[in-house]
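Morning - zinc ion inputs below, output right after.
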Amino acid sequence: MVVRRITFASCQPYIIYPVRLFPDGNIPMKPAEFISENKEGMIKDLETLVNFETPSTDKNLLDRAADYLLKYVEKNLSCEAELIENATAGNNVSVRIGRGAVKKPLLILAHYDTVWSKGTLSRIPFSISDGIARGPGIFDMKGGLVQGLWALRSLEEYGRPNRPIEMLITSDEETGSNFSRELIETKARASEAALVLEPPQDGKVKTARKGIGEFSINVLGKAAHAGLEPWKGVNAIEEAARVILFLQSLNRIEKGTTINVCTVNGGTRTNVIADHTSLGVDFRVASEAEAKNVVKSVMSIKPNNPSIKLEISGGLNRPPMQKTYETARLLEVAKTIGAEFGTSIEDCTVGGGSDGNFCAAVGIPVLDGLGAVGNGAHAETEFVDLNQMPLRAAIFERLLEEL
Ligand SMILES: [Zn+2]
């Protein structure tokens, strides 16, 4: 056994890494070294990907990025790569390495769409200053996507994948994955575990996520002149106010249930009794049982005024992802690898959802938040710490080898 030292800028002091000798006495390059030596390549890829604007709802822009990603993996990996076309949303890309292995595959999930609309780059261009990179979608989650691609490159070149590994890169995560959900669930059912490259929370991986749902409520009344014949009107805003207070009363913070009316639109003019109001409602739950309670309570709301009509639609979109015994085992492996690299991997629970929720719901363990270290998801302050990218990519590569 030979001991070799590798450095990562963010990780002091040197780490000691045991390697086996080739029969001819040469020391093979380790995947972590390959990643460490290719930091500039990772940054270049990050810049290229950020410079593809990819709002979830712009199919033309998304498809251009998907074509680029397909070419990228075909060029840099000897993998089975596939463009999975979608008539409405952007195309998805699937990459598979480790063909021929008999074990069930590991599923890596990444998304290349962002919450940023076309033109954002002119306001927030890709930039680097003091090891911090900025740009739309860089933290959520193009940084993680780049780390995943380099982990695969190094794994294939220098590592030992002992099972097939499939990476699915999707186009509509930020709008609820309505068009990729079935694909994700199908791949998840055939996989051993899912590893999600969403950004970590303050560097921590995510082992539990709340379930997320939405309701859309239309309150329909009757318009009338507010001064001349107010008795002929049925005020939809008055009824909506009651409904709002009822919805807010469903909050159960101690159980992890939150429900919030986040948008209200209604009425036409100040001298017309409002004939309609529409409410947009977000809710989050820690368990399926709580989801059922919320859905039942909301769906059974009846108007106080019998002349009002209520139209209620929606429900749970992403089921809760709970920390299971199998998830804890994945975390333990990640912690051990982190320790090898001289860093500690912690976990946390978050209120936000991801495609990891869908994988957990089909019964496979999920480790989420394995992406780039940074902060400011969905905010203009979004950034990633470039010095941490090779380290996180190397940890991710080792995870792919160990699981
Ligand atoms: Zn994301």
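Note: The chain has a mean pLDDT of 91.

O.
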